[in-house]
């Protein structure tokens, strides 16, 4: 067995990267002359990449639900069509509005971080509005479930109702995660420790929830 | 500096026992926790296989103490037919999820991916901690099914509907046992999704200075590719488990057809699609096969290169082949459903990419063989198991050619031929990859060397034993021996019983070899010779830090990478290996730079 003890190579101090700037970049090679100061950090931040990765995973989950719906409906003799509760259309407007208010909040906070404090005395205001709209959406969805249940249409009434409940509840649970993110952003903003990447990642997640809902509404409207 | 990375970079070494060893956010501790879980799960899975094999060889043999596991499932210490199926299901589930996925991907990947990329930790350490503990809870839920109601589910690790969805009327364990199974696997999926999130972001965003993507070692590439597969595959299995649970607890009809009569009872479900479960399951299930094996491809390549003292014939082609395997793995899942009643045209559609996927597999094997040809391989436990992996991967892969063709699969389907195929190519090969990784990285993980003599004995016994078990499976399959039978009473099966007895003896022999490994592991952990920082004279970043690595992986000096990962035997270099961190200028035209 080889037992050579290898000494780590000596690295000159002036060639040492600043501690913690660990971004390697997509193709971050050391230049031929070995001058590391010419190497640029241009890798995306982990939170930025991470949110896209999470969204890809959520997309796959809902793609699986969608394909299950399509396959199950395809050969079904027992599929019962029904009219969607009208409150869902109101909820759609609410979630679209929440995306708009969040975008306003994001821009105002960016301006606030950039020093233009006169433009936004309370940068969290639009976040609170977004939070309210998010809660209103969840309340609206709950109303739709209660309404259907009161009419005697439960999870097991027919598989079309099963898919309705599964898809809308799965979306609502993911949306609650987004609400948690918004609360976290507001908390960080109030303590002046909010990072731009946290805000951007939360915004992307929230907008995705809106797009996902519009897609689900279209799917449910088409198939149910 | 950004907030999340600041979190990853600046968290100091914990001092309390709980934060240091139990609820730790250190990727290295999490990697070891995953390894310990996989080891525990492997021992449980192996014990189950022993019980099954003894039953198959000598059906009336009373195994002392077996009734303690289940008084109804093993009255008089002999398995009932149903309990045999329950143990078989648990063996498959535990091995596929909690060993083959957990050890090569989650355990080694957690420990070494951040180090090989030059990061101080993963970017979301709390998610990482959750990933392990969620997986651990999943394991406990699965094991709990042994002790709840009438035992674990008997539906096989694939849990085909409608049996899996009809409840306790389907047999022992088909009620609460299935619910616990689906809950366990659903939880497991969450854990792997959190892990994949960390693996992908670590690879893309946390690399140190100079570490371009092509400078990542093959192991890092393998874990990265696997995490992309995991992200998409587990995200599909989780909703499938949710729908299965709903069929049980909420009375929905996703998977159970109308007017199904079981045990003289008409089930209340209507119109469910039994094939739907298979579609959802195998869309996950086939990538899962590659989730189990691709980390092994990386580990074996890494170990072989270090011991050959020269790089593979083509670093890039190996990476592209692994990526091609991953991409194709989503297009072939229907080959598990050739006889499910699918449209024959669909079978053809799935057969074609199944044959195509043999191309990147063959390229990988040819690169290994071509690189090994003429090399002066250093023989040690790690390199032996790497060679064993190559052998098993080829042997198991060849039978895949036959099964890929629907016309042949119709005959071989659900026979021991299939069992032999996947055990060799996915089970034993992946286990050999885990062993190669263990013998190779144990010094870095624990600071101590493993016993090489015991390691070589372990290899020889495992290599011979595995072939003695699984090669006869192919013969049994061709002879028409159906899988999942707990006894062989038909005229055409009775002559095959001696083969089963031989296999049982081989299984006990091979299992005994694994106990040698466990002894070696535990003994070396406490009494092994102290390990130097770079015992194998490797070049990648894990060998340029202390043994075992400090809390932030690299101490005061962040690594800077100057070279491709495998600079061995470079002409004009001062030693036969040039580490990635070495500023030494090389005149190597093959370097990416």
How is this structure best described in words?
- The complex is a heterodimer of chains A (224) and B (593).
- Chain A is mainly alpha-helical and 224 residues long.
- Chain A has a domain at 81-223: Cytochrome c oxidase, subunit III, four-helix bundle (Four Helix Bundle (Hemerythrin (Met), subunit A)).
- Chain A is built from 5 helices and no strands.
- The longest helix of chain A has 32 residues, at 159-190.
- Chain A starts with 45 loop residues before the first helix and ends with a helix.
- By secondary structure, chain B is mostly helical.
- Chain B has one domain (21-578): Up-down Bundle (Cytochrome C Oxidase, Chain A), CATH 1.20.210.10.
- Chain B contains 16 helices and 4 strands.
- Chain B has helices at residues 3-10, 17-22, 27-57, 81-117, 125-144, 176-205, 218-249, 274-308, 315-328, 344-356, 358-372, 381-403, 406-412, 416-446, 452-478, 497-527, and strands spanning 261-262, 265-266, 567-568, 577-578.
- In chain B, a hairpin with a 2-residue loop joins strand 1 (261-262) and strand 2 (265-266).
- In chain B, helix 3 (27-57) runs parallel beside helix 5, helix 14 (416-446) runs antiparallel to helix 15 and helix 15 runs antiparallel to helix 16 (497-527).
- The longest helix of chain B has 37 residues, at 81-117.
- Chains A and B meet through helix 1 and helix 4 of A and helix 1, helix 6, helix 7 and helix 8 of B.
């Amino acid at each position: 067995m080889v037992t050579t003890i290898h000494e780590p190579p000596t690295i000159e101090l002036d060639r040492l990267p600043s501690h913690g700037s660990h971004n390697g970049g997509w193709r971050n090679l050391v230049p031929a002359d070995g001058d590391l100061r010419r190497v640029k950090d241009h890798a995306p931040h982990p939170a930025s990449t991470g949110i896209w990765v999470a969204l890809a995973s959520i997309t796959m989950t809902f793609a699986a639900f969608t394909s299950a719906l399509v396959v199950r409906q395809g050969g079904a003799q027992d599929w019962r069509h029904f009219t969607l509760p009208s409150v869902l259309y109101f909820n759609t407007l609410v979630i679209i509005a929440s995306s708009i208010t969040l975008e306003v909040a994001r821009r105002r906070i960016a301006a606030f971080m950039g020093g233009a404090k006169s433009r936004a005395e309370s940068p969290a205001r639009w976040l609170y509005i977004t939070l309210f709209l998010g809660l209103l959406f969840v309340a609206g969805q709950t109303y739709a479930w209660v309404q259907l249940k009161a009419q005697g249409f439960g999870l097991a009434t027919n598989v079309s109702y099963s898919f309705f409940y599964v898809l809308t509840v799965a979306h609502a649970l993911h949306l609650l995660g987004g609400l948690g993110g918004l609360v976290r952003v507001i908390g960080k903003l109030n303590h002046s420790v909010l990072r731009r990447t946290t805000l951007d990642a939360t915004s992307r997640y929230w907008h995705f929830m809106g797009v996902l809902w519009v897609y689900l509404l279209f799917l449910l409207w088409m198939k149910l | 500096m950004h907030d999340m990375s600041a979190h990853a970079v600046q968290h100091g070494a914990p001092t309390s026992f709980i934060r240091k060893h139990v609820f730790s956010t250190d990727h290295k501790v999490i990697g070891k926790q995953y390894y310990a879980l996989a080891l525990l799960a492997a021992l449980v899975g192996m014990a189950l296989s022993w019980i099954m094999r003894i039953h198959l060889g000598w059906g009336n043999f009373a195994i002392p103490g077996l009734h303690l596991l289940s008084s109804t499932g093993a009255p008089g210490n002999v398995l009932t037919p149903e309990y045999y199926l329950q143990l078989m299901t648990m063996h498959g589930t535990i091995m596929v999820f909690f060993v083959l996925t957990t050890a090569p991907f989650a355990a080694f990947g957690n420990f070494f991916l951040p180090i090989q990329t030059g990061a101080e930790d993963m970017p979301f350490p709390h998610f990482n901690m959750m990933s392990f503990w969620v997986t651990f809870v999943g394991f406990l839920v699965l094991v709990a099914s042994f002790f709840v109601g009438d035992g674990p589910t008997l539906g096989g690790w694939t849990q085909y509907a409608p049996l899996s969805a009809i409840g306790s009327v389907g047999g022992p364990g088909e009620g609460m046992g299935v619910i616990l199974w689906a809950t366990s696997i659903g939880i497991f999926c969450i854990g792997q999704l959190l892990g994949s999130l960390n693996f992908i972001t670590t690879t893309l965003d946390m690399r140190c200075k100079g570490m371009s993507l092509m400078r990542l070692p093959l192991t890092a590439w393998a874990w990265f590719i696997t995490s992309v597969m995991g992200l998409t595959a587990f995200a599909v299995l989780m909703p499938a488990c949710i729908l299965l649970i709903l069929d049980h607890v909420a009375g929905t009809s996703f998977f159970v057809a109308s007017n199904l009569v079981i045990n003289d009872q008409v089930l209340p479900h209507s119109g469910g699609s039994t094939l739907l479960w298979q579609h959802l399951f195998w869309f996950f299930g086939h990538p899962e096969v590659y989730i189990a094996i691709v980390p092994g491809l990386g580990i074996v390549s890494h170990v072989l290169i270090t011991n050959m003292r020269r790089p593979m014939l083509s670093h890039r082609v190996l990476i592209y082949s692994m990526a091609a395997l991953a991409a194709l793995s989503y297009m072939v899942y229907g080959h598990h459903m050739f006889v499910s009643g699918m449209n024959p045209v669909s079978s053809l559609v799935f057969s074609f990419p199944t044959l195509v996927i043999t191309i990147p597999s063959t390229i990988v094997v040819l690169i290994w063989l071509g690189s090994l040809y003429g090399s002066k391989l250093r023989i040690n436990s790690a390199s032996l198991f790497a060679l064993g992996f190559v052998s098993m991967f080829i042997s198991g892969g060849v039978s895949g050619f036959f099964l890929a063709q629907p016309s042949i699969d119709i005959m071989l389907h659900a026979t021991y031929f299939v069992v032999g195929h996947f055990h060799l190519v996915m089970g034993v090969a992946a286990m050999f990859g885990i062993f190669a990784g263990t013998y190779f990285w144990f010094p870095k993980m624990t600071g101590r060397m493993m016993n090489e003599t015991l390691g070589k004995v372990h290899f020889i016994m495992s290599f011979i034993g595995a072939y003695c078990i699984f090669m006869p499976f192919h013969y049994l399959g061709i002879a028409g021996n159906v899988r999942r039978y707990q006894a062989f009473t038909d005229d055409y099966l009775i002559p095959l019983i001696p083969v089963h007895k031989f296999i049982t003896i081989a299984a006990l022999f091979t299992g005994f070899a694994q106990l040698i490994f466990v002894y070696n592991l535990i003994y070396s952990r406490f009494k092994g010779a102290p390990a130097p920082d770079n015992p194998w004279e490797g070049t990648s970043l894990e060998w340029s830090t202390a043994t075992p690595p400090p809390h932030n992986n690299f101490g005061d000096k962040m690594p800077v990478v100057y070279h491709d990962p495998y600079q061995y035997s470079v002409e004009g270099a001062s030693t036969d290996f040039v580490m990635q961190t070495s500023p030494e200028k090389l005149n190597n035209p093959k370097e990416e730079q």
